[in-house]
Amino acid sequence: MSALLNDVVINKTAGGLGRRTPDQDMVSGLLFDGDETSGLTYGNIARLSSVEDAEALGIDETYDRNGQSAYYQVSQYFRMNPSGDLYVMVVEADSFANTAAFAKEMQEKADGNIRQIGVIYSGAADFAATQAAAQAAQTQADEAFAEYIPFEVIVEGKGFIASNAAEAANLADLGAENVSVVVAMDPDMATKERLFLSSGESYTLPAGATLVEIGINSGDFTVRDKDDNPITDQVGEPITIRKDVYNNTAAVGTLLGTISAAKVSENVAWVEKFNLAGEGFGKPGFIDGEQVTTLGDLSTLNEKKYIFTRTHTGIAGLYFNDSHTCTDPTSDFTYVEANRTINKASRLVRATLLPKLNSPVLVDPEDGTLPPSVVKGFETLCRAALERMVANEEASEIDVYVNPLQDILATSRLDVKVEIVPMGTARRIVVDLGFNNPFGVNLA
Question: Of 129, 254, 251, which is closest to residue 190 (Cα–Cα)?
């Protein structure tokens, strides 16, 4: 009725806030070999949003035995990023490298959504096997980038010996710019004995009870009470126990979760934001169970591009040393955040330009070049897609250039140049600190 009278009319509009679908930078994958479960079979993927989702698939603490660490990695991932988004995939593989060779297949089954993949292996492996796995992972990353579904890879540094820092391989020699090797592990977790019944269920040793090995180096134990009598099961048979530890296991889940919680431009070693200390990871140490060695050795390992954990004098907590990848230090892609930034930009630009594929393009009728309206149209289109990265402090500046002197009539090809000024990282903060004597300043 009021519309017929003189009035102030309010029309509610939508879209002015510019809200978009949330970014998928946190979407991660954990690729591992091992046994199938009731909810996860070979070659299939499952998407997890919590540790409970993993347990529902049959990946629980009893799954982690005989070299397996999938449950530990999942737990650490969600500890570092409770809002994380994690795909998991179990495969049949007889080597670390063959496990890593499933990375692109996993990405394809996830419809290209994964941004970073952690790869772990339950079998025996020396560091040469780790190097082979890193190179296999790089091959997978190269193929994925060529198919517009890029991702980063984190592999555990199996076979790494912390005391041999001087002789450790230089990971830059691998030439794997999309792969990082983590050798960090809580030494208490690495050496903590976990007990399992022959059925696979976890077992807690009663107070006063002891384990007695059956035979020599069998790995099987009976349980004896304080009077040295065997403890039996419900049918009167002596309980048989196996011991297991997270031997040769690195903190892939911790690093993967930290990466997923970070902006693409952020270094996972940022002290103010990424304190790693918490349940299941409380001390700096290495995959072989050794604790942090000398500062000189840590500096050597840092120069050789290993990712490990450290403490800082003057502040509590546990932190990564840096975000190295296995490539030359002078490369544009020597750090994880550089790769994540370029990968995100590539996805945004492709998604923006794809609707224009096979579209008609106006040319100047006099000389066949691109008129200003076309040049500006494509430049504006790409810049609008990428400027949100600047607004989110994921890049310092974006520049887009379309050269008007292109013979698109002859080539049917349109070249667009995009340059990104990345965010910097304060890896070293140098302070000049000294005294000042003000005497005589005002006497002249």
Answer: 251
Alpha helices in 242-368 (DSSP H): 252-261, 295-303, 336-353
Model confidence band, residue 9 (pLDDT cutoffs 50, 70, 90): low
Tell me which of 243 and 420 has the higher pLDDT. Answer: 420
Q: Please determine, for residue 123, whether its predicted confidence score (pLDDT) is greater than 60.
A: yes
Tokens in use for 160?
A: 């790494």
Domains and CATH numbers, the chain: 27-189+248-320 (3.40.50), 193-244 (no CATH), 358-444 (no CATH)
The residue type at 8: V
Name the residue among 200, 191, 205 with its Cα closest to residue 246.
Answer: 191
Long-range residue pairs from 213-216, CB within 8 A, at least 24 positions apart, any chain: 214/240
Entry pTM? 0.87
Distance in angstroms (rounded) separating the CA atoms of residues 217 and 351: 58
Q: In what order do the strands lie in the sheet with 210-213?
A: 202-203, 194-197, 240-244, 220-224, 210-213
Does 83 score more than 80 pLDDT?
yes
**Per-residue pLDDT, 12:** 59
Q: By 3-state DSSP, what share of the chain in percent is helix, strand and coil, each rounded to 5?
A: 30, 20, 50
Q: Which residue has the higher pLDDT, 193 or 1?
A: 193
One-letter amino acid identity for 194? R
Confirm if 401 and 349 have CB atoms less than 8 A apart.
no
Whether the Cβ atoms of residue 409 and residue 382 lie closer than 8 Å to each other: no
Q: What is the pLDDT of residues 236-275, one digit of tens each?
A: 778 887 777 788 999 999 999 999 999 999 999 999 999 9
CA of 250: how far to CAs of 196, 279, 395, in Å? 22, 15, 31
Q: Which candidate, 246, 243, 257, 242, places its Cα nearest to that of 189?
A: 246
Residue 212 main-chain phi, psi, to 5 deg: -125, 120
CA–CA gap between residue 34 and residue 22 (Å, rounded): 34
Size of the chain, expressed as the number of residues it contains: 444
Q: Record the tokens describing residue 47, joined without a space.
A: 């998407």
What's the rounded Cα separation, in Å, for the pair 386 and 345? 7
- Examine the pLDDT at 93 and tell me if it is beyond 50: yes
